[in-house]
Structures are given as structure tokens and as C-alpha cells.
Amino acid sequence: MTTFESVTRPEPVAPIGLPARREAEGAHAPGFEYDVAVVGLGYVGLPTALAYHAAGSRVLALDVSPRRLDLIRSDRADLLEGDHERLRTALDHPDFELTSDPDRLRASAAVIVCVPTPIDEHLVPDLSLLRAACAAVLDRVTPGQTLMLTSTSYVGCTDDLLVVPLTERGFVVGTDVFVAFSAERIDPGNESFGHDEVPRVVGGSTPQCEEEASRLLLRYVTDVHRVRSLAAAEMTKLLENTFRAVNIALANEFADICTSMDLNVSDVITAASTKPYGFMPFYPGPGVGGHCIPCDPHYLLWQLRGSRVAAPMITQAMTEIAARPHRVVDRVQEVLSGSGRGLTGTRVLVMGIAYKPDVADLRESPALEILAGLRARGAEVAYLDDHFDLVALPDGSTLLGLTPTGAAAFDPELVVLHTRHEGTDLAWLDPGRIVLDTTYRGADLVNGVNL
Ligand SMILES: NC(=O)c1ccc[n+]([C@@H]2O[C@H](COP(=O)([O-])OP(=O)(O)OC[C@H]3O[C@@H](n4cnc5c(N)ncnc54)[C@H](O)[C@@H]3O)[C@@H](O)[C@H]2O)c1
């Protein structure tokens, strides 16, 4: 058995930006109409399906949402430009099928599941979508198939949702069907690291499962790192995102310390980053959004609660991260009171509400809590972000976005710079307006104050 080794595919696929479709190397999976089916076509699944197609595979792309399928068919999904090109190629190609029919899964040699794994309002993992997707796959499982979970989840999830039920149905995993876990590492909106170029960690239920899954991944990624078990692969993803969460919490704490000492934390981080080893920069901000960092460590904490294992550092980091948007609201109040004003009736504009620059993704965005928190304290709030016409706030209300002209007419007394998309125009923020810079990167702001 080969363990803990890196395997490199001999020939890299076309990187993002050069999305020509390769001819398939060698034969397609015999006896199957498709080489791979991707279940869940969101931020992860759609680029994955397109990467497989660009690498020469015959792809079945499945989603339960007719709205999502419509967006994809009409090329209106939020994708990097290279992936838009891949999508246009795929939509015109006979080897790419978009479907909502799970029965088609029987026709695919491999099935990759990438559906959401959120948490509920009590920070408990919500596995309902993953359970439903796995049940749909299991109901149609065909001998010879490789089944791979890529959704982030707790340690033991692939066993619970695939291996155990398959065994109960009489399948011998590792002989009749192959089961593996390999978490996605995609960073939507990030053009610096092509999806295909990021190495993948894979664990199988048996050595043969690991072998089949590595082969499946190496159809489009350049490197695969194999680990000893499904559990090790699941835990690797939890470590990656918990590492980010803890370090972001530390960066936030350092930012507050620097502010108290009248130091610029960005200068300090830049200076520390000159150390070529033993330091990796993390940046403070208004909180953390997206589907990963605010959620994934809770999968681990939830599991640890059950086994009475304490994880005080992770718990503290997640508490701090969750509290960060409230700190922004407090700071707005503090800054205003410094100039003799309160929040009641004050016009506050939040600029950029996506959870990170250059994506149209609002999931868990701190901006939503900040807007609701400011409004709850009496401020008149508005936002400017041309990615979103309308948003629903956590307090149940909705808010319409302003155009740049509308924002100027709103005449905010304070602006919260939350997300700085490429090309964000700050020129209209004349020196008479206070700008609370939650990005800590607004060195060019005339009247900026740090969070
Ligand atoms: N978004 C990221 O940056 C990112 C990065 C790495 C890993 N992940 C992980 O990848 C997984 C997927 O996340 P995402 O951001 O792509 O989610 P998403 O919300 O963007 O998309 C998920 C898609 O799955 C579809 N879906 C839900 N249930 C389904 C079912 N039973 N059958 C078929 N389709 C179904 C939904 O309609 C939706 O289109 C999560 O576990 C997440 O933690 C996400």
C-alpha cells in the first residue's frame, strides 16, 4: 500500500485563462456513458465539472435547483473569466450534460459530491443537504463506481454516509465500489491559484479506493497527496480552515493592540512578512464570511463536544470571530461620539458588502450583521455594492442597494469601508466625511480611521 506520498501527473492541464479542452488521455471509463458526475454545481461543483470537461472527461453535471441550472445554462453563474470560457465550450459540447435527474448518476463511472455543509443558528452542523445527496447517490449506486465526497464535514462522515450504508446493502467497498474523501480547496475569485493547480489530499476507505480516487483526481489536478484513511483526509481540511480561523482571530487581536498603541497594524504585518520562514501573514478585518472559515471549525467543535474533548483555543477564536461585526458597530458609535454625535438618526453607508473582494457572495458576510446592528441602534443605514441590488438582513428586514449617485445623494456622515472590490471609487469621499476602514488597507484614505 502506498501511503503519504505525493503523486504528480506528468502533464499539466491548461490553466485557468487558457481553457481549451484537451483530448482525453487514454480510454474513457468502459461501460459508462460518463467518466464523472458532479453532484452540486455551486462555487465548488461547477468549476470542478468544468475542469473535468476541460481535461477531456465526459461529464454529468447535476444540481437539484432549477434556478441554479438556469443560471448556468445562461452563463450567469459567478465564475472566474477562464471558467466562463470553459462553460461556454462545455454547453456546446456533447460530452457535457447538465441535469436535475439523479437517475442519470447510474451512467457515470465516478460520482463527486460537493453540496453545502452549513451550520445552523446554534452552530450545529446542518448535514441535511449532504445526507440527501448521499442518499440519492446510494439509491443509484452501480458496481464499479468510485464515490468521492468533497464537501467539508466532520471526521467519520464519509464512513457514516457512504461506507456503512453500502456495506449494509451488501456491497464490498474496495472491490464492488470505491469510496474516498478529498476536500475541495478552491478559493472562489482567486485567479492566482488555478483550481487545477492546487494539490489535493485524498483518503480512501481501502488502498484500492485510494488508488481509484487518486486516478480520478489526477484527470484534472496536477498533484495528489494520499493519506492513510478517510478520517485523515477529513481532518486535514478541518485543520486547514481552523488554522485560518485561529490566525485571523490573532490578527484581529493584534490590530486592536496596535490601535491602542497608535501603531498601524498593516505596517507591522508587512514588516513581519519580510521574515522568510516561520511567519505567514494573516490580515485583520470586520469579521469573517463565506461558507468555510465561519462554519468549518464548528464541525470539529461539535464533534469534540460529544467526546468531551476541550479545544479552548479554537473555541476562543470562533467566539472572537463571531463578535467582530459587533466590534465594528461599537467602533462606529465610538468614532461618532468622538466628534460629538450619536448613532440615532445618523446616516451611515457601508461600502462593499460581499464577504471578500471581487465575489458576488454574501454568505455569512459580516456586513449584514453590521448593517442590522447599526440600524438597531438608530442609524439610518445604506450600502453601496454593485454586486447586490437587494439584501436581506439578519433582523428580517431588507435593504435596497444604492448606486454611486444615490450614495452621494444619501450624503453619509460616516462610511464603513467593509470590502474593497477592484476599482472601488473612494474619490468622492471628501475630507469632511469620516471613513471607518475595517480593511486596514486604506492608507490612501484622506479621512480614514482604523477599526
Ligand atoms: N465556497 C468555497 O469557497 C469552498 C471552498 C472549499 C470547500 N468548500 C466546501 O464545498 C462544499 C460546497 O460548497 P459550495 O460553496 O460550492 O456550495 P454552494 O452553496 O455554492 O452550492 C451548492 C450547490 O449544491 C446544490 N445542491 C444542494 N443539495 C443538492 C443535492 N442533493 N443534489 C444536487 N445538488 C444539490 C445546490 O443547489 C447548490 O447549487 C461545502 O462543503 C463547502 O464547505 C467551499
TrEMBL record:
- Pfam families with a match to the protein in the record: UDPG_MGDP_dh, UDPG_MGDP_dh_C, UDPG_MGDP_dh_N
Q: Which SUPFAM superfamilies does this one have?
A: 6-phosphogluconate dehydrogenase C-terminal domain-like, NAD(P)-binding Rossmann-fold domains, UDP-glucose/GDP-mannose dehydrogenase C-terminal domain
Mention one GO biological process in which this protein takes part, according to its record.
Answer: polysaccharide biosynthetic process
Keyword terms: NAD, Oxidoreductase
GO MF terms held by the record: NAD binding; oxidoreductase activity, acting on the CH-CH group of donors, NAD or NADP as acceptor; oxidoreductase activity, acting on the CH-OH group of donors, NAD or NADP as acceptor
Residue ranges annotated as coiled coil are none
Report domain UDP-glucose/GDP-mannose dehydrogenase C-terminal positions. Answer: 349-442
Q: Which SMART domains match?
A: UDPG_MGDP_dh_C
What protein family is recorded? Belongs to the UDP-glucose/GDP-mannose dehydrogenase family.
User: Under what name is this protein listed?
Assistant: Nucleotide sugar dehydrogenase
Q: Which organism is it from?
A: Herbiconiux oxytropis
User: What is the organism lineage in this UniProt record?
Assistant: Bacteria, Bacillati, Actinomycetota, Actinomycetes, Micrococcales
